[in-house]
Amino acid sequence: MTDLLAMERPPAINTYGYLWSHRADEAVAILASNGYREFELMLQPPHMSLDPQSAEARNLAAQVRDRSIVLHALNMPSLDQNLASAMPEMRSYTLDLFIRQIRLAGAIGARRIVVAPGRVSPLFPAPRDMLRQWLLDALAALLPVAKSEGVVLAIENLPIAALPRAADLLEFMEAIGPHPNLGICYDAANAHFVGEDPVEGIRLLRNHLQIIHFSDTGRQVWRHDMIGRGEIAFSPICKALSGIGWTGPLVLEIISPDREPLAAITGSHRALSGPEHSFGLT
């Protein structure tokens, strides 16, 4: 893997592909043995629990302390939590999950939490003002905890969530106002799937970006596929990132069930390493 190690700017790797097959620390060990040092970890058992005393948490914290790895973020799948639920009990439960996640991030040295801004009904969603107020209330509770742990909350553009587009995220961020512990995780595949140009999304959110997610997809089926297996043109996106002087983490979030995870990840990395991509992955 010397070609990957020689890259000027190797990407960070999300461990989604190992969600059901390996513990998070085991997945990191596999990826580290192939030259990767920067990660975003999926936070879901059996891959990783919320317990800061679990074996995987202790192992990962030790690697962060000795600087052998960087943990850019923790990312909890959205199916078991919902900040935009009409049920106050679900919102309360979700707040507890996020607080525990923030505490875990502080304990193991993860720098950010990727925040799904609540799932909404595709048939008959709650009114926009209600959704926004629930999210504002949630962040009012979570941001003080994030500040105390030195963790940044990065709200993601999810097709199934309350803030699916860059303009939605920008309006929400402006409603809250600047906060050192709040930013955006912008996912290129999610943007493409909802019919948004990721280049325009990046330019719109340039002052709030914390993390960029790359994977491939079409617009008929929502996927996080290996780069090159979908419809996304990544060269203009890389140029847009270069144009705004982006120096934050670029995360490959690849889910390719028909391929071994490492093969899908390294294949995606190589696909972004050609001369047409001017963002340092060359």
UniProtKB/TrEMBL annotation:
Coiled coil: none annotated. The keyword Isomerase applies. The keyword DNA damage does not apply. Keywords: Isomerase. InterPro entries: IolE/XylAMocC-like (IPR050312), Xyl_isomerase-like_sf (IPR036237), Xyl_isomerase-like_TIM-brl (IPR013022). Residues 29-260 form the Xylose isomerase-like TIM barrel domain. GO terms for molecular function: isomerase activity. Transmembrane segments: none annotated. Pfam families: AP_endonuc_2. This is Sugar phosphate isomerase/epimerase family protein. It comes from Chelativorans composti. The lineage of its organism: Bacteria, Pseudomonadati, Pseudomonadota, Alphaproteobacteria, Hyphomicrobiales.
